[in-house]
Design a protein that fits this description.
This protein is mostly helical and 565 residues long. The protein is 60% helix and 0% strand. The chain has helices at 24-29, 42-50, 72-75, 84-90, 106-116, 130-148, 156-170, 198-213, 219-222, 228-236, 243-259, 264-282, 288-300, 308-318, 331-344, 349-358, 365-380, 384-389, 391-402, 407-414, 420-428, 430-447, 451-467, 469-484, 486-540.
C-alpha cells in the first residue's frame, strides 16, 4: 500500500532543512500554514503582510484548505527492469483503485500502474498467464478512465513513465508478412493476419492518443520523450498487417504532426524514405494507404506559394508510387494527394501529366483503368495553357487505350468525353486532338469486338463531327489514304528489313572469313618462328654444316642440362 501523507502544523521550517532535490513546483505544493511563531518562514511572512496582520495577533493555527502533497520526484519508484522475476513480483498483489486513495497519492499510484502495465505477455498460448493478462487489461482500462476525467494528469514528472510503458507495449518486431511472396499473395482475396495482443494493444493505443491530444501535454516539454526516434518507430509499425492497428497509428501520427510542430519537417522526410524503400527496393508495405491519407491532410494545409521542398516531394516521392504493380491498394489516396497539388498550383499539371505518361502501364489492364480515372480527375482542374503543352503525347496514349482489346480500358477511355471540362479543353485544342484519336475511333467503329465500345465510339465520333466537321473530314480522308497506302508501306517495310538482313548476313560472312585468314597467318608465323629457332639451336651447339651428322656436337652437353636455359 501507498504511504499516507499527513500535514503537521506548528513546526518551523529552517532553510537548512529543505531538500536539495526538490523542484520548485513540488516545494510550492508542499507549503502549509503554520503558527505565527514561525515567522522566519519567508512565504508565511509574505502571506501575513499581504493580509495586514502583525506578529502580536493571536497565535491560533489556521488549518490547510487541502492536504499537502509530498514531492512526487522524491517518492516516485524507478523504472522497472522487464524481467520474468519482476513481473511475478509486480503482479503478486493487485494495486488499489484510484478512488480508494486520497488525491495526494493518485499521481504516485498512476506511476505504479504504468510500471505494472509495462510487462508484456505471450498471447499465442491462451492458457498462459490468464490472471495476469486480465489484471493488466483492467489496469489499462482504469488508466484510460483516469486520464479522461479532469485535468492535471499528464505532468512532466510522469512523462518518462508514460513513454516507458508505451514503448514496452508498442515497439516490437512485426511478424513476417505474407505479402513478401508477391507472386502468390493477393490482398483482396486473403484475410490479413490480426495481431494476437490486440486486447491490450488497443487500450495502449487509446492511452497514447489521449496523451498526445490532451491539453496538459505541453509540446515543448514532451518533445524530450516524443522525439525523432519515437516517430521513426511509430512509422515502422505502419507495416503491420492488422488494419485496426494501422487505423490507430494513422490518427496518432496525424495528431503528433499537428501538435509537435518542431517534428513536421522530419516526419515528412521520414515518410519520403518509407516511400523510396517501397518503390525502389521492396515493393511491399502494408501502410502506404494510411500514410497517403495523412499526407492528403498535410498537403491540404500547405501555404501558397508552394515551397520547392514540397514540389520535389511530389515529383520524387508521390509520382513514382504509380510504378509498383500493387498500386491498386492505395491508388485512391495517391490520386487525392496528386490532385491536391494541382489544385493548389495549376502550373504543376504539366509535370504531373508527363510523369503519369512515363509510368503508364503497358501490359496491366487493371492499372490502365486506374490511370484513366486519375487522368480524368487531373484534367478536370487543368488550365488550357498547361493542357496545350502535353496534348500531343497525352492523346497518343489515349488513342492506344481506345484500341485496347480489353473492353474496360477502351470503355474507360471513351468515358473521358462524357466530362464537360475535358470536352471544353479538347474543343480548344481540336486541331491537335482530332488527328491523334480519329484513326483509333475509325478502327473501333469498324472492327472492335465489344458492342458497348462500338456504341460509345460512334457517339464520340459524332461529337467530333459536330464540333468541327471540316477538320474531321480532312482527318478522315487522310486516314483513308493511309489505309489505302498501307499495303505498299508494308511491302516497302518488309523489303527494307530484307535488305537489312542481307547486309547483316554479308557482314557476318566477311567477318568470319577475315577471322579464318587471321588465324592462318598466325599459324604460319608461329611455324616459321619454330623452324628458325631450331636452326639457331643446332648451330649454337657446334654442329657443322648441312652435311654434319645429326648427333654432332651433342657429346659436350652437361648432364644436368644447366647449359640450356
Amino acid at each position: 500500500m501507498l504511504r499516507s501523507m499527513r500535514v503537521k502544523f506548528g513546526k518551523s521550517t529552517k532553510p537548512s532543512d529543505k531538500s536539495s532535490d526538490a523542484t520548485p513546483a513540488t516545494t510550492k505544493d508542499s507549503l502549509t500554514h503554520s503558527n505565527p511563531r514561525t515567522s522566519s518562514n519567508s512565504s508565511l511572512q509574505k502571506a501575513n503582510s499581504s493580509a495586514g496582520k502583525t506578529a502580536a495577533q493571536p497565535t491560533n493555527p489556521q488549518p490547510a484548505a487541502q492536504p499537502a502533497r509530498a514531492p512526487l520526484a522524491r517518492d516516485k519508484p524507478p523504472l522497472p527492469e522487464l524481467t520474468p522475476e519482476n513481473c511475478v513480483a509486480y503482479y503478486e498483489e493487485p494495486l488499489p483503485a484510484f478512488r480508494e486513495v486520497p488525491p495526494s497519492e493518485k499521481q504516485l499510484l498512476l506511476v505504479r500502474k504504468l510500471h505494472l502495465c509495462s510487462f508484456t505477455f505471450d498471447f499465442t498460448d491462451p492458457a498462459a498467464n490468464v490472471r495476469e493478462k486480465e489484471m493488466k487489461r483492467q489496469t489499462l482500462l482504469e488508466l484510460v478512465d483516469y486520464v479522461n476525467t479532469g485535468t492535471g494528469k499528464f505532468t512532466e514528472l510522469v512523462s518518462e513513465d508514460i513513454i516507458f510503458m508505451l514503448s514496452a507495449n508498442l515497439f516490437r518486431s512485426l511478424p513476417p508478412s505474407r505479402g513478401a511472396d508477391q507472386e502468390n499473395y493477393d490482398p483482396d482475396e486473403e484475410e490479413p493476419t490480426l495481431e494476437p495482443t490486440w486486447p491490450h494493444l488497443q487500450i495502449v493505443y487509446e492511452f497514447l492518443l489521449r496523451y498526445v491530444v490532451c491539453q496538459d501535454t505541453d509540446a515543448k516539454a514532451a518533445k524530450k520523450y516524443i522525439d525523432q526516434a519515437f516517430v521513426v518507430r511509430i512509422l515502422e509499425l505502419f507495416d503491420s498487417e492488422d488494419p485496426r492497428e494501422r487505423d490507430y497509428l494513422k490518427t496518432i501520427l496525424h495528431r503528433i504532426y499537428g501538435k509537435f510542430m518542431m517534428h513536421r519537417p522530419y516526419i515528412r522526410r521520414a515518410i519520403n524514405h518509407v516511400f523510396y524503400r517501397f518503390v525502389y527496393e521492396t515493393e511491399r508495405h502494408n501502410g502506404v494507404a494510411e500514410l497517403l491519407e495523412i499526407l492528403g491532410s498535410i498537403i491540404n494545409g500547405f501555404a501558397l506559394p508552394l515551397k520547392e521542398e514540397h514540389k520535389a516531394f511530389l515529383t520524387r516521392a508521390l509520382m513514382p508510387l504509380h510504378k509498383p504493380k500493387c498500386v491498386g491498394m492505395y491508388h485512391q489516396q495517391l490520386a487525392y494527394c496528386v490532385t491536391q497539388f494541382v489544385e493548389k498550383e495549376p502550373t504543376l499539371a504539366e509535370a504531373v501529366l508527363r510523369a503519369l505518361l512515363r509510368f503508364w502501364p503497358l501490359t496491366n489492364s487493371q492499372k490502365e483503368v486506374l490511370f484513366l480515372g486519375e487522368l480524368e480527375e487531373i484534367l478536370e482542374i487543368t488550365q488550357p495553357a498547361e493542357f496545350g503543352k502535353v496534348v500531343q503525347p497525352l492523346f497518343r496514349q489515349i488513342a492506344r487505350c481506345l484500341n485496347s482489346s480489353h473492353f474496360q480500358v477502351a470503355e474507360r477511355s471513351l468515358f473521358l468525353w462524357n466530362n464537360e471540362a475535358i470536352v471544353g479543353l479538347v474543343a480548344q485544342h481540336r486541331a491537335a486532338v482530332v488527328p491523334a484519336v480519329l484513326p483509333a475511333l475509325e478502327r473501333n467503329a469498324r472492327s472492335h469486338w465489344n458492342p458497348a465500345v462500338h456504341g460509345l465510339t460512334v457517339n464520340v465520333r459524332k461529337m467530333f463531327q459536330e464540333m468541327d466537321g471540316v477538320l474531321y473530314e480532312q482527318c478522315r480522308q487522310r486516314f483513308e489514304h493511309e489505309e489505302l497506302d498501307q499495303p505498299a508501306q508494308q511491302e516497302r517495310r518488309e523489303r527494307e528489313w530484307q535488305e537489312i538482313e542481307a547486309a547483316a548476313s554479308q557482314y557476318l560472312q566477311n567477318h568470319h572469313l577475315q577471322q579464318q585468314q587471321l588465324q592462318q597467318l598466325q599459324h604460319n608465323s608461329s611455324s616459321s618462328d619454330t623452324a628458325a629457332a631450331a636452326l639457331a639451336i643446332g648451330s649454337g651447339l657446334g654442329g657443322g654444316g648441312r652435311n654434319s651428322p645429326p648427333n654432332a656436337g651433342l657429346g659436350t652437353l652437361p648432364r644436368s642440362g644447366s647449359g640450356l636455359r
